[in-house]
Amino acid sequence: MTPRKAIAGTNLEQAKSHNRRVVIEAIRTNGALSRAAIARLTALSTQTISNIVEELEREELLRAQATLKGARGQPAVPYSINPDGGYSIGLQLDHQLAVGVITDLSGTVRARIERPVDRPTPAQAMPLLAAIAGDLMRKFRFDRNRLLGIGMAMPGPFDVEGMTSVGPTALPGWQDFPVAEELQRLTGIPVTVENDATAAAIGERLYGVARNLGSFVYLFIGTGLGAGLFLDGHLYKGSRHNAGEIGHTIVKPGGLECGCGKRGCLERYVSLRAAYECLKIPDPDHASPELLQALLANGDSLEAWVAQAIDPLRQAINMLELALDPETVVLGGFMPVGVIELLASRLDPLYLSVSSTSARTVPRVLVGAAGKDTSVLGAAALPIFSETNPQFDVLQKPHAG
């Protein structure tokens, strides 16, 4: 694994909130750290670190651990994230399932609820999601003053004519619907909404194989296909929060008809829906990913679909590598892990790209490790993401630590 780059902060007074995020991120990523260790990692002054740590400790976001004995002088006091310093609710809506979790500041799930749905409209889904949030708070008792907000993940693209509510991989009736505003009205809690692939990228970076990576692409294989983009230490969402909708990239001109109106789109070959149709699974609108896992476990062949999917998937990886030069491409989503591993095992040889270098220390493709709840965990992180992930903007200065 490549060595983690030092996170450089700034001593400008107006950058206080940025520096708080830098300190929290350093501790979240590396574990308990002394003030001196934080200063070395962040390139912030010792006084700045002392001020920030004292403030975060007063707010109960950090807590002091047992002291560490040094070679000389006073023993160093390490600081760690206080799990009970804050809580957030994550919600995820998909075609067949609504899932909710409460996580603490460390990301530990304190309660989880799921409810079946059937391609719900906003009128059907919004009361259900609000009820899940309420049930979660009754299931796990905590100081409501510590609730940071609700993060919600749902399939994209958002507000694109002819794509948002059309076809079997889209949810009907959501075009121009004010999701965050309506859910906040129903719950009284601030709400942040993100597409499921972007939320999954957050979840994989916080809890999975991308924990120490600064640039990666998360390919979310669900009913359709999308990509979450984590580049140079921050999420890239695009001008309308639709970056990564590569499922509608044409990989086979004149190929299978897509609900978006084009032919040969990537998600017509690489997605749960594509697998159900290729394998002639009855009632693909209500088929479950577990069906694919059961077929694999029983020794039934998925070869017809794998053979159809593998070259379009190679094309997608090649395009993403050439366009974005990520450290790796992570495969995950609602597709069962065993099936994803089967796909990954067939990818070689990958097409030549800028990632084709013997100097690399991370494989070009990794299978996600955060599991099927990756998106909802990422959604739960949305309300606190600005506190746990520094945004690498003009305030950041280069640091050759």
UniProtKB/TrEMBL annotation:
Gene3D superfamilies in the cross-refs: 3.30.420.40, Winged helix-like DNA-binding domain superfamily/Winged helix DNA-binding domain (1.10.10.10)
Q: Which Pfam families match?
A: ROK
> Taxonomically, which superkingdom?
Bacteria
- Show the InterPro entries listed in the entry: ATPase_NBD, ROK, ROK_cs, WH-like_DNA-bd_sf, WH_DNA-bd_sf
Family the UniProt entry places it in:
Belongs to the ROK (NagC/XylR) family.
State the protein's name. Answer: ROK family protein
